[in-house]
Amino acid sequence: MKSCHPREDNLGQSHQTVTLTVAQAIVRYLAVQYIEIEGAKTRLCGGGFGIFGHGNVTCLGEALFDHKDVLPLYRGQNEQGMGFAAAAYAKAHLRRRFMFCTASAGPGTANLLTAAALAHANRLPMLMLCGDTFITRLPDPVLQQLEHFDDPTLGLNDAFKPVTRYWDRITHPAQIIQSLPAALNTMLDPADCGPAFVGLPQDVQGWAYDYPLSFFADRVHRIRRQAPDIDEITDAAAVLSNAKCPMIIAGGGVQYSGAVSKLTAFAETHNIPVVETIAGRANMLNDHPLNMGPIGVTGSDSANAIAEQADVILAVGTRLQDFTTGSWTAFAHDAKIIGLNVARHDAAKHMSMTVIGDAKLAMTALGDALDAYKAPSDWTISAQEKRAKWNDYVSKNTRIGNGPASYAQAIGVVNALCDPRDRVVAAAGGLPAEVTANWRTLDIGTVDVEFGFSCMGYEIAGGWGARIAQSEKEPDKDTIVFTGDGSYLLMNSDIYSSVLTQKKMIVLVLDNGGFAVINKLQNNTGNESFNNLIADTPTATLQVGVDFEAHARSLGALSETVETPADLADAFARAKSADRTYVICMKVDAYEGWTTEGHTWWEVGTPGISDNTKVTAAHTEIESARSRQRKGV
């Protein structure tokens, strides 16, 4: 029985307490956490995703039922998909709101490992409340328990330590008074943001405790803005003010800081060309005169060309992943890099000059220190000429009829017909590269290309989470998911979730007969096609196509199959007007139609010796580019 009662401490002062189970206290605490966003107070936790089992249904399930109106619980079909949805939700809310995921002890919790790794790689907040084995050990070994003979404290949940920013196992009811605020503070920290894991032993979940009533008082959080060090600003300004060919790399952190307008104003004031990372796509509109396109392995000729020539590179809010740096071949060896980032670890990469602080505050301070500096006009004009050539290439690449049906043509069709505020979601395989290179940004913050963990299966589940977030802000807009047949087969059940919850998505399933982009990598390194395309899988002795349209219909979605990109345009219009999730299927060529321009070198391991002369030749060619790789200076 829950009860409130006063008690006196040893100084005779009265304190109100309330008796709750651990599970009840956790849920009650989450329900009273708020965040201030643009002057408005909103609930910090948007709810959760849950699949119940014996490890979380009896206690945590009971507590969540009592709060189902303020913390809606979305029933997932697969725990991994729940985690992807939570990550996409957080990304759509610019890390200012989060969802929790609850899973049962054992395989249910294990299914969250991949999603936790994705959230960790992408620096996204997600709270996991997962069942654990009994602290008393009296019933050991229990159902789904992993026994370690030399360490009885070690269990499955310990596997989450490498893929979370915060990890705890609750062994006493009082511990959540410290643990929950610590978890939330980690998830809201701009520099340390990432997933938090709280293991909840099945017995402890139900233990009652007299909690201080003050623990459940409304709390309003604000995202910390760290001011930069004035000496770092001075040093960076001195370097940048002498630049002849400066460039800005705009990463995902620009959006998380709310610094998009500041970045644009900074670039305009100082006439500096801007390139975007994959996570930073949609930092600038496609037609902005200083937007030189995406950089790196999936980038543009224009961005990569100026990156090779730049003498000073201001890297804002990016972790400088290898797809951005071309495995560190994209820049001149003597180029100076200024790492402007709230996270020290990211700011200091490759011996960059650091400006550690919030992007919005730091760019304001750096702009003031630069005073009247402007990049030479001939440098910026040259960059714009390169961008104009890239625009011509993209127009040709995405044009209907430019060769067999391709990812690029499908992207062009959707890009031409979607609303500027529609949200695009893609991940893994060939589509993130094609979307990054060919998508023309129509509005700020409308692109989610998950390439931090490059995780197959994110697309549809992430689309569901993104749509939940979108429905809270812009319910009249659409979430558009690009997925290949490989990712669809890996994880598609959240089509059903979206139908059940009336969170409509438009899903494009582009079928190229297998894992075609890895087949392309296989061929480009001299190897024969093997085990990637269904047609080249020796153990696939019966060649059977998948009826994606029928499958999507069986999950409750509307669906149709089109033959050509021209037909796709009409189907997309029907999908826009539909009242529920709509799946459009189209075959694309596995070998032709790829975006062939704009790629930097990317380091992959290739055989140093081989009986296949094509493999040997490819190895030699790939290794020849290694001389361009920066060694950290």
TrEMBL record:
Family: Belongs to the TPP enzyme family.
UniProt xrefs under NCBIfam families: myo_inos_iolD
Keyword terms, alphabetized: Hydrolase, Thiamine pyrophosphate, Transferase
Domain of life of the organism encoding this protein: Bacteria
Span of domain Thiamine pyrophosphate enzyme TPP-binding: 449-584
Cell division listed as a keyword: no
Enzyme Commission number: 3.7.1.22
Keyword NADP attached: no
GO molecular function, one term: 3D-(3,5/4)-trihydroxycyclohexane-1,2-dione hydrolase activity
Gene behind this protein: iolD
UniProt domain Thiamine pyrophosphate enzyme N-terminal TPP-binding: residue ranges: 49-144
Pfam families xref list: TPP_enzyme_C, TPP_enzyme_M, TPP_enzyme_N
PROSITE patterns linked to this entry: TPP_ENZYMES
Domain Thiamine pyrophosphate enzyme central: 233-366
Name of the featured protein: 3D-(3,5/4)-trihydroxycyclohexane-1,2-dione acylhydrolase (Decyclizing)
Annotated source species: Parasulfitobacter algicola
